[in-house]
């Protein structure tokens, strides 16, 4: 029996939201301007994958043309926050002559629910290479079982 619920399990609190997001992502995947980076009210959202392994979690995020210093990664308990700013050089001409313009600029923020709390980030490994961010989050050695029975009066 697995001590940690699957990231994609039905009983996980973020499962329904994840399924709804997946439906919309799949729908918009056919539109070139929407693939990779999706436009929404909060800015540009990078595509990412979160995979559960025996060792822990592997997060992969596509952040093309971004500088390492423009990416911010933070873990708070059972939440991973990925944010950053994607800049594009400004052109000085007003008559740009574009037929198609799909590259986006602006800030983004993604918050991902993790299936376990990360107490110490010292063993978390993050690498950014060729526009791809890879984050390895090991499972906690002694996971705290925060389940407590509540007496019903």
UniProtKB/TrEMBL annotation:
Residue ranges annotated for the SHSP domain, each copy included: 38-153
Annotated InterPro entries: A-crystallin/Hsp20_dom (IPR002068), HSP20-like_chaperone (IPR008978), Small_HSP (IPR031107)
Domain of life from the UniProt record: Bacteria
Pfam families: HSP20 (PF00011)
Similarity comment: Belongs to the small heat shock protein (HSP20) family.
Protein name, UniProt field: SHSP domain-containing protein
Phylogenetic classification of the source organism: Bacteria, Pseudomonadati, Pseudomonadota, Gammaproteobacteria, Alteromonadales
């Amino acid at each position: 029996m697995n001590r940690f619920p699957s990231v994609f399990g039905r009983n996980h609190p973020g499962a329904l939201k994840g399924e709804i997001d997946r439906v919309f992502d799949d729908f918009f995947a056919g539109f070139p301007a929407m693939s990779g980076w999706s436009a929404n009210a909060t800015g540009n959202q990078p595509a990412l994958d979160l995979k559960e392994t025996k060792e822990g979690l592997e997060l992969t995020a596509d952040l093309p043309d971004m500088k390492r210093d423009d990416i911010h990664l933070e873990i708070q308990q059972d939440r991973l926050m990925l944010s950053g700013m994607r800049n594009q050089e400004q052109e000085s001409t007003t008559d740009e002559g574009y037929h198609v313009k799909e590259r986006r600029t602006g800030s983004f923020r993604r918050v991902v629910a993790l299936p376990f709390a990360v107490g110490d980030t010292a063993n978390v490994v993050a690498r950014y290479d060729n526009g791809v961010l890879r984050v390895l989050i090991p499972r906690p050695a002694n996971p705290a079982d925060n389940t407590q029975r509540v007496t019903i009066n």
